[in-house]
Amino acid sequence: MEKVYVNNLSNYIDKEIVFSGFVDVVRDKKWVQFIILRDSTGKVQVTVEKSDEGNASMVDLVSSLTHDSVIKVIGKVVNNEAVKLGGIEILPSNIEIISKAEELPFDYNNLDGVNIDTRLDYRWLDIRNEKNMLVRQIESCLTEGMRKYLYENNFTEIHSPKLIGAASESGSEVFEVKYFDRKAYLAQSPQFYKQMAIAAGLDKVFEVGPVYRAENSNTNRHATEFTGFDLEFAHIDSYEDVMSLEEDLLIAGLTLVKERYGEKIKEVFNTEVIVPTKPFPRIDLKDLYKELHELYNYEIPETDIGDTNAETEKLVYKLAQEKYNSEFMFITGYAATKRPFYHMRNEKGELQGYDLIWRGTEITSGAQREHRYEELLKNANEKGLGEDVKFYLQFFKYGCPAHGGFGIGLDRLTMLLLGLSTIKETEFIFRGPNRLEP
Ligand code: ATP
């Protein structure tokens, strides 16, 4: 018999089934024992009548059950209006202990006061918390919504290597690894390979995969390994096309999340899922500085001119809400010196790219890419990268369509969606400067 999940039990009324799950609660009463069992879809009550002589061995077993042990129950699903959990219970004919749990290091149902590092040490227990389980399921739903949109729009999913031979691409630090008798590096994005796919004629590609950044920063929104949702597509006229596609993609993802989890997110995370409408507001960096100065008396520090910083991003959210009634805002007009060499510049040297800010934090950098070999070589040389990116420059020598794309940090996106305070809460298994385990 196949395992039946809690959310499917109502289809098995008066039938014999096999059910297995974690022991959530055992209530050992005088005449009856109740076990609340849990799987990833919910909880169900198993009821053992003590007066029934045939139940004697089961009664002893239930008395010895520890919290979070995993048991397998063979029994009949019945309706019982008195049962709070969906008016359904299982009357078992046999119970088997699959795995006996020791005493847990903390109560995952009450994480107040449990240090985040202790929680991460025991992440598999931490995720047994209903809220943390939901984070995983919601992130999966968000990814599903965005993936679905891309499949429906003829994107091809690719999987590019994470071991690479040259450390380059942008200002971000890369991890070096020993690779037999030479050095290799962990990819800091799939950028070069997405573009190789375009040069190969694939036209529209995306990848959801690991991204490595050797940034020794302990902020709430940086990890050393995170999941990038990256895409690239061909035959565009400008980075406006890229922004437009990103709007559609986010709308698709958030629509599915709202449909499936909107109510639950309100109840558990006290956060509203707001599906944005097109177009998201856009602002040029120079105008942004001006607005922030006039409205909030904010002056960008000299070192950040041509760019934004964490403080600006917070104020961008304020501005987006107050002036444009939006949670999102595109910023354009970044200085070419502050952006990677493969972002296109126009004939005036202006960068053809953007960042997208959501709820006060950058979630994407996107751009039209430079597809003209000579221009790209010039840009790379200006950044002193000519030699390092020789292999990449070859992609543009044998015909390559105009193209653009972007990368979204998925864990960061989930953090903002659910109003959580740190990316440690949303990465399945967090990796930071001080954490390589579990
Ligand atoms: P930041 O300025 O926040 O460090 P970045 O400019 O280095 O980000 P990109 O290289 O443009 O970021 O990466 C694309 C997206 O990946 C970012 O918009 C962000 O959502 C996410 N991202 C970047 N670095 C990290 C990180 N260390 N941890 C988690 N997500 C990240």
- What are the distinct ligands in this entry? adenosine-5'-triphosphate
Kindly report the name of the CATH homologous superfamily of the largest domain: Bira Bifunctional Protein, Domain 2
Oligomer: single chain
The overall pLDDT average reads 95
- Radius of gyration based on Cα positions: 27 Å
Task: Summarize the structure in words.
The protein is an alpha+beta fold. It folds into 2 domains: 6-99, Nucleic acid-binding proteins (OB fold (Dihydrolipoamide Acetyltransferase, E2P)); 123-425, 2-Layer Sandwich (BirA Bifunctional Protein, domain 2). The chain contains 11 helices and 16 strands. It has helices at residues 56-63, 116-121, 123-126, 130-152, 191-199, 239-269, 285-296, 310-324, 373-382, 390-393, 410-418, and strands at residues 16-28, 32-39, 42-49, 70-79, 88-99, 156-157, 163-164, 176-179, 182-186, 204-212, 225-234, 282-284, 328-332, 353-358, 361-368, 403-409. Helix 7 (285-296) packs across helix 8 (310-324). It is elongated, with a radius of gyration of 27 Å. The structure holds adenosine-5'-triphosphate.
Question: What does this entry show, briefly?
Answer:
The chain is α+β, with helices and mostly antiparallel strands and 438 residues long. Helices cover 30% and strands 26% of the residues.
Spell out the key features of this protein.
438 residues, alpha+beta, OB fold (Dihydrolipoamide Acetyltransferase, E2P), BirA Bifunctional Protein, domain 2, five-stranded mixed barrel, 11 helices, elongated, binds adenosine-5'-triphosphate
